[in-house]
Each structure stands twice: as structure tokens, then as C-alpha cells.
Amino acid sequence: MARIHSLLAVAGVLALAGCSAIGTDDAAPSASTGTVTLVTHDSFVLSDGILDAFEEESGLTVELVQPGDGGALVNQLVLTKDAPLGDLVFGIDNSFASRAVDEGVVAPTEAPDAFEGALVPVDYGDVCINVDHAWFTAQGVAEPVTLEDLTEPEYKDLLVVPNAVTSSPGLSFLLATVGAFGEDGWVDYWTALKANGLKVADGWSDAYFTDFSGGGGGGPRPIVLSYASSPPSTVPEGGTEPTTGALLDTCFRQTEYAGVLEGAANPDGAQQLLDFLLSDEVQDDIPVSMYMYPVSPTATLPEEWTAFAPLATDPFEVAPEDISQNREAWLALWSETVIG
Amino acid sequence: MSLSTLTRPDVAAASGRGRVVVFWSAAVALPLIFLGVFFAWPVAVMIAKGFVVDGQLDLSGFADVFSRPRTWRIVGLTIAQATLGTVLSVLLGVPGAYVLYRHTFRGRTLVRAFVTVPFVLPTVVVGVAFRSLLVSGGPLGFLHLDGTFAAIVAALVFFNYAVVVRAVGGLWERLDSRAEQAARALGASPWTAFRTVTLPQLTPAIASAASLAFLFCATAFGTVLVLGGLQFGTIETEIWIQTTQFLDLRAAAVLSVVQLVVVAGTLIVAGRARSRREQALGLTLPSASVRPLRLRRPAGMPPGDGHALTLVATAVTALVVLLLALPLVNLVVRSLRTGDGWGLDHYTALGGWGTTGGSLSVTVWQATVNSLRVALDATMIALVVGGLVALVVSRRPRRAVGRRAVAGLDALFMLPLGVSAVTVGFGFLLSMHHPFGLPVDLRTSPLLVPIAQAVVAVPLVVRVVLPVLRAIDPRLREAAATLGATPGRVLRTVDLSIAGRSLGLAVGFAFAASLGEFGATSFLARPDRPTLPVVIFRLIGRPGPESYGMALAASVVLAVLTAGIVAACERLRAPGAGGEW
User: Fold this and answer.
1) Domains recognised in chain B with CATH numbers
2) What ipTM goes with this model?
3) Which spans in chain A are helix H?
4) DSSP β-ladder status, A293-294 and A244-260
5) B576 touches chain A (CB under 8 A)
6) How is residue A160 annotated by DSSP?
7) CA gap B152, B227 in Å, rounded
């Protein structure tokens, strides 16, 4: 019995001594004008010190709320639009942009390049098929170039893609095929891919690090869906060239937007933070920290990006309105075709 | 005898009864309020959102969802994988409990802590560890299990083995072995004695563990997605997709109701199995019935002494521990793989914000401290609430109404394990802004995270403590009362002191569950104070091999941390220098 008491006492003392989360809340003034809350997805990061610099310059305190992936982010904002989770949203991409605007989640803006007068583009990137050069050289097989090539018998059992329903690059690749083969053709294309031994992994990291042969995990498949910006990180130590490359004729362009939330407690602070995201200080950091391309023409790209991570010149496109209208139907059809 | 001496005890008894009524009312009310505010209400708000359209109740979703063939397949798959996962966990876990809690051997604490590790690992990480073993070309690629139903079931057993071992072992180690010895003395074979004497005594604990395992299996989410994909989707994965990806709240609400029905059905069946078998058991000090594990028959012992049973149980347990180790070793190996070679780079990276991989909002070490703090709060809450629930539910009221009420309360507090974390998490967002008209926004409050974790940890505390409380011979309480102990004193000296022995186990379990919780937390965690599983999830989803390596290294840290804490709790509960009983 004494032991139990001492156990409880130890726990109690720890809690009182400030080892607990409740006990140490620093009670930041949440609604005061000094705080701006950024609602964003799981992948949002900036290099150390960048947000601190903004806080120092502006006198604002930045709080982050990251409620999940891109889809969960938008859907939570829709559900909470009467009592928004913060002031500024960053990370709505072109596959969810229309829903966010139609639902009135973001406030209108005067910015000239804004999507539907509400969402300002901050960064963009290409989702493309990547190949493991080393594997193709070793096997003496020519690398595929186009989407059509992937259905050829010499590439049987070589391709892995993330699930379109559970992963945002997966959805982007589905949209690439819609853009390439049209509303009437994409289902046939996927049927052919499936017949050619397509493997569907749950998420991007699962596909790239477990199934892909060139991602460092030593998987069995040399063709994977990834980003145009993936190859630079496969330059071997002491090497000069990456061991993988992106197929630029297979890409879909993903744009990430930011916008001031409708009903924000601190719209001025939100606008300041939005301007900061578009400043070169952040734009220069975006490739390093988030693997996306900055929208600012004056931002500088890392050297290995200009060398090994070129963008597609003519990526496939689907109008955001079409995506918004058909996303669920397409995904249902995709599941039926590919997953069964 | 004077009048005053006659009345005084009466007065004392009356005021004592008053206090008893107040105590039991509070013991029932406090947990109910907790569960109502932080579970039932958010879930109700979320489900209502799917059924109420423009102020009108619209139940057409049921017809709609049930007309999809996919729905039926999903319900079938959910039940099939949860049943298989549970049955296998029990079949393997009972011998494990026997070896790990009924015997002593060198390194036992270590093995006990080790088998708990899978229970807290983030599912994304387990997915990686399993898939890189099973993928063609991987160490176990020749089994061709990648992406199969069998792989999912294996992973479910991987997670739930510890649940069975701990829940059954907690009772078994203090079961008086004299009844079994008597059966043996009367000529029963060791197997018959186990089957007819020990097994019935263990049934409540096994049913308890099985219902926990079933709920964990039925609501498994990350494991199913990573290992099986949507092909083997369950109700849980479907709710996640409908809510976070499609925003089809109507379908999500229908599926949530279906999930509730499945879970409630399971709890009723498990409750029946438990109560039919529940009986007062002779409980002893663990040391009284625990024997050293001997692989060789001790000299002078006759054959047919049950040595063969011990050997089989030991072999099964050794095999299971080996199988549990495979994915874990794989995880450690992968966390040490850097670019072209091997090294501790990913571990040294944990202290920083990542070199080229961009920064986290905190370092992994800070996240670890956050996790520990949150888990400490959650464990305290879960102990108070779960302890009260176990105490109330352990009573056997004389009237049938009372017994049904107690059974209902028991099932009620199990529900959080069986309801989708997405429904709870989104429900929090909808209901915790100015809850009950109060001018506070709890949605982003640091309070909500430990509370959300405690809701999940309460059932674990109840399931560990309850079998022990229920096994207390009521005559012990009667004897204490006859000897003049007040109801409060009976509670303290009988119930608390006996149940207190399972407290260390409960603390370890609740702490581990809270450390590993990644469901509702992922929708709540404030990024300036994210927990370790949340950080691991973010790292693993981010492009760049450095992030991936850091995620694996951080998972190893989480595993070691958990094993350490569980081992420490085991030590705390080990009987001291004697004289405790």
C-alpha cells in the first residue's frame, strides 16, 4: 500500500512541479491583436529562425495549427467556417481550391494573380514519374518516356504509384491521366496499367522508400510516382549526378495557395503573414524546406535544382472547376478500376 | 446498557450510510460527466451533422450507403480481420501470459517490456517495418505476403499480443494454484487440470483481453491502409476517407452508427462470457505461485508433471518474441542506413531541425518531452476516472436492475476504443468552440490533448483493474465489516490494497497507450507542442531521405522510451521487502 501511495505521490509531485502539459501552459493571449494563427497542412515547414525573424519584425506572435493532410485541412476549414480555426490558411492546392472558394472559407482579395479572387499562389511543383537510372543501365533496358510507354510489356511489374484516394501526389497522378487521356480515356489507361502489373502503395513515402529501387530503401521496382524535385536528393556521396531522374512528359502541376480566412480574428496580421510568405526570404527557403518551386520570379533556386530538377515545360492540366465537380466521382471510378 | 451507548452507533451508521451514498454517487457521476462531455457529446455532434440537413432529420443515408455493395464488403472485412486478429492474439497470448507472469527467469522484466513495444509504435512506422520485410526482394519476400490479408492479420497480432499477455497475466500471476494442485492430486492430468480448473478462472480476464483486442483490431487504421490498401478497407478507413477526403458526412455518419452497432454487439457478447464465469477467486501474492522457469525436468520429478505443457508454452512464446523482434530489428537496421553506408547520422539529426530537410516546429527531443508531459497528465486522469469506473463496476448489486446498470456502465466506457478517431477528432472541432456557451475555445487548448488520450486510456485501466477487483472474495469485505470496519475502511483495506497491486500494470498500460496514441491527437495537437508520434508522422510524409531516416530513428527512440517506462512500472509494482499484504 505504501508503495502505491508513493507512486501516486511521485506522479502528483511531477505534475505539480510542472512536468505536465496542463501545468505549464504559458497561457498565450490567443485573441489579442498580437497573435496570428496560420492553419496549414502537415508538410508545412520553414527553416529554423525564419518565422522568428517575421515575429521580431512585425511584433506578431505566429501560432500554427496543422490539422492533417491537404484534404483534411480544407474539409476542417469548411466544417468550422462559422468559427474559424485561425487567420490565414496556407497549403490549399489546385485539387481542393474550388471547394474552399465555393464554400466561402477564404475572404476575397485584390491580388491580381489570385485564384477566383481569393486564393494567392505561393509555390508550385510537378508530380512526375521518376525512374532509377542505375537499374535500367544494369538491366540494359531503355527507360520509358511517356505515360503510354508504361503500359508496354517491357515495363511489366516495374511501376509503383501511391493511392489516389489516400495520397495527394497519388491524386495528382490520377489528374495527370485525366488531363492526358480525357474524361473518356483515363479509365482505359488505368485498366492497361493494372494489366501491366501496376502496384499501388498507400502513401508517397511508402512507394518511394519501400517499393522503389532508387529511393534508398532498396525496393524491387525501378519506376515510381514522385516529384520533379526528387532526383537531386539521390546524388550519391562523392558523386556528381543523381541516380534517378524525372520523366518530364508525365507531369501534373500542383499549385499551393494561401488566403485570409473569412471571419479571421486578426485579418491584418493574416495579410502581413501572407505578404511575408511571398517575400523572397520565404520564397528562397521553400525549395529547401518544402521541396516546392517558389512563385516569385526573383527567388533563387538551389544549385542542384537548376541542374537536376527542371520543371516540365508542358505539364498536363485539368481545370480546378472540373476537379472540384468530379473529384469524388473520379476517385470512386479509380478505386473500382484499380483496387476492385 | 445506557441509552446513549445504544444510539451512538446508530447515528454513526446513519451518517456513515450518508457518506457512502455520496461517495458512490460521485464515483458514478464523475466518470459519466467526463465521458459525456469529452466523448459522447463530440461524437453525437459529428454524427448529427451527417443526419440533419437544413434543420430536417434525413435518414436516407442509410438506404443509400447500404445499397452500395462496397459497404457490405467493408463490414464483412472489418469483422473478419478483427475476429482473426483477436483469436490469434488470444491463442498466442495465453501461453505468453503463462510464461511471462507465472514464471521467473533471468531477463523477464526485459521481455515483458519488449512485448509491449509494438503496442505503442505509430502504425505508419509499423507499416514501413512490415512492408520492407515482406516486399519482394526483402528478407521475408519469399513468403509473398506483401499486400495480402494475412499480412494485415499478422500486423494486428503484432499490436495486440501485449494486450492479451498483460491483461491475462495480471490476473494469472496472483491466482492461487492450490485448486489446480488439488485436481492434480485427485488424479487429473496436467492438461485436464488446466482446462477444468485454471482456464475457467482465467475466462473473465481472457474475455476482457479479447474484447480489448477486438476493438483495437476493428478500429485499426494506419496498419490496414499501409499493409493492405483500400482493397482490404475497414469501416474505420472508410470513415476516414469519407470524412477527410470526400467530406461526405452523411455516409460517414451512417458508417459511424454501423461501427457503434458492431462494437456494442461485441461488448455484449464479451460481457456475457465474462459474467457467466466471474467468481470469487483465491488470490495470493504473486511470489506465492510463481515458479522459476526450468527447461530441463528437475531431477526427481516424475513424468506427467506438466513439464511438457510448460515446454510447449515456452516454445510458443519464444517463437512469438522472435517474430515480434523481426520488424523491430528491421526498423533499427533501417534507421542506421545512411546514404551509402551506415551510421548514427539520423540519430544526431534528432537534436536539430534537420539540415537540408527543412525544420520541424520543434526538435524530436522537445517532442519527446511534450509526449511525456501529455502522457503523464493523461495517465493521471485515466487512473482517477478508470479507477472509479472499475470500483463501481466491480460491485454486484442484489437487484437485476442494478446489475444491468453496472454492466451497461462497463460497456459504455469501452466505447471510446471502438469509435473512429476521426469522428471523435472532428467532433471535438465542432463541439469544443465555446462548449456549452462558455467563452473558451478548447479546440486549440493544450488541455484537450491529454483529455483525448485519457478517454482512450480509461478502458485499459478498467480492464486491467476490474478482473482483480471482481475476483475479491466478498466474504473478505463482510469479514472486515463484521470486525467493525466502516465502509470507507473496507474499501481502503480490502479493495484498494488488492487492486493497488495491479496499479503498476495499469499505469504502464495507460502511459504506453497515451504515448503511442495517434488518432484524435493528430487532429488536435498544437504544432508548437506536437507529440512524438505526430512528429514521426510528419517526418515520414515529407520528401527527402533525411526526413525518412529521422522518422525511423525517432520511432526507435519512442520504442526504447516505452520499453523503459513499462519496465519501470513493472518494478514499482513488484512486491517490496514483504509485509505488504
Assistant:
1) 56-297+305-332 (1.10.3720.10), 357-581 (1.10.3720.10)
2) 0.78
3) 2-14, 50-58, 70-79, 97-102, 133-139, 168-195, 204-205, 267-278, 280-290, 303-308, 320-334
4) unpaired
5) yes
6) E
7) 6
- Report residue B579's pLDDT band, with 50, 70 and 90 as the boundaries: very low
CB B89 within 8 A of CB B157: yes
pLDDT at residue A14, rounded to an integer: 53
Angle at B83 between CA B80 and CA B86, to 5 degrees: 145
Residue of B nearest to A19 (CA): B373
Residue B4 confidence (pLDDT) above 60: no
Tell me if residue A123 falls in helix, strand or coil. Answer: strand
Cα(first)–Cα(last) distance of chain B, in Å?
38
Which grid coordinates are listed for A204?
A: 508517397
Three-class DSSP labels, B276-345: HHCCCCCECCHHHHCEECCCCCCCCCCCCCCHHHHHHHHHHHHHHHHHHHHHHHHHHHHHCEECCEECCH
What DSSP designation does A299 have?
Answer: P
Residue from B542, B550, B581 whose CB has the most chain A CBs within 10 Å, to mutate = B542
Nearest to A43 among B247, B359, B542 (CB): B542
Q: How confident is the model at residue B366 (pLDDT cuts 50, 70, 90)?
A: confident
Q: What is the DSSP string of B217-238?
A: HHT--HHHHHHHGGGG--HHHH
Chain A from 245 to 264: CB within 8 A of any B CB: none
Q: Quote the CA–CA distance of B274 and B500 in Å, as a whole number.
A: 22
Q: What is the DSSP letter of B419?
A: S
CB B99 within 8 A of CB B514: no
**A165 vs B241, B380, B543: nearest CB:** B241
Phi, psi (degrees; rounded to nearest 5) at A221: -105, 130
A36, β-bridge pairs: A62
User: Which positions ≥6 away from B281 have C-beta within 8 Å?
Assistant: B171, B175, B176, B201, B471, B473
C-alpha dist (Å) from residue A25 to A78, A96, B78, B154, B353? 29, 35, 40, 41, 23
Q: Which of B140, B149, B230, B331 to mutate to test the interface with A (most CBs of A within 10 A)?
A: B230
Asked if the Cβ–Cβ distance from B340 to A236 is below 8 Å, we say: yes
Query: Global pTM?
Result: 0.83
